[in-house]
Specification:
- The protein is globular, with a radius of gyration of 17 Å.
- The chain has one domain (10-31, 42-180): OB fold (Dihydrolipoamide Acetyltransferase, E2P), CATH 2.40.50.
- 10% of the residues lie in helices and 34% in strands.
- The protein has a seven-stranded mixed β-sheet with strand order 3-4-2-1-8-9-7. A two-stranded antiparallel sheet has the order 5-6.
- With 217 residues, it is mostly beta strands.
- Strand 5 (106-107) and strand 6 (114-115) form a beta hairpin.
- The chain is built from three helices and nine strands.
């Protein structure tokens, strides 16, 4: 009997999602004014996931994935600020750290740009519902304060180590309400990733593991 190949994916459990969209590509800043590699409208766009985790979990992540490029631009919030700024429904037991994960919508060299795999989004019950019976699919809009698990793929390339988001498992959905007036992301001081951070995707991806059985932090 052949041994099961170890999954490259890692999972951080029981996170809070904020300013997250796996169905609407987000435009990325091009600070260095680099030329587009194609005329595809998704150039300089990425799928984005932002999570709040406790300082304890953040320290564990930094230890496990030393030097990851996702970590230098994190933002810290007190437990009170998380509620005041509408990112969480209730005050957490610890102060929180906001981490951004981004996956470029396209990958490949100039003249050979291809769509990257969208980030999967499933529910905890049968992959189609959260614990309260709300429907979860790839088009579900995730509101601030949504709880769940994030799966990511650590990839080392010529630019360094990046943790690319691959899947969300929603346990408690907070429906997104567009009429709430949006948000002022600039006020949080969250820095955009450079083009290399967002767009240099690995050209070959492993089969997706939706079991969420990796050790949690």
């Amino acid at each position: 009997m052949s041994e099961k190949k170890a999954s490259p994916f890692k999972t951080v459990r029981d996170v809070t999602f904020v300013y997250t969209s796996v169905s609407r590509p987000q435009k990325q800043l091009n600070k260095d004014n680099k030329p587009a590699l194609s005329d595809n409208p998704l150039e300089f766009h990425a799928w984005e996931v932002k999570i709040l985790v406790s300082e304890t979990v953040f320290k564990a992540l930094k230890k496990a994935f030393k030097g990851a490029k996702n970590f230098p631009n994190v933002k810290e919030f007190t437990a009170e600020e998380c509620v005041e700024k509408g990112m969480m429904q209730e005050e957490p037991d610890e102060d929180q750290v906001l981490i951004k994960f981004s996956q470029g919508c396209l990958y490949g060299k100039k003249g050979d740009r291809k769509p990257s795999r969208p980030i999967a989004q499933i529910g905890i019950k049968g992959k189609v519902q959260d614990r309260n019976g709300l429907t979860i699919d790839k088009d579900t809009s995730v509101g601030n304060g949504t709880k769940g698990h994030l799966q990511f793929n650590p990839v080392e390339n010529e630019f360094g180590l990046y943790l690319y988001p691959t899947a969300l498992c929603i346990t408690e959905l907070v429906p997104y309400e567009a009429e709430a007036g949006g948000y002022d992301e600039d006020a949080f001081g969250v820095e955009e990733l450079d083009e290399a951070d967002s767009f240099d995707e690995p050209e070959e991806e492993e089969a997706e593991d939706d079991s969420f059985s990796d050790p949690s932090f």
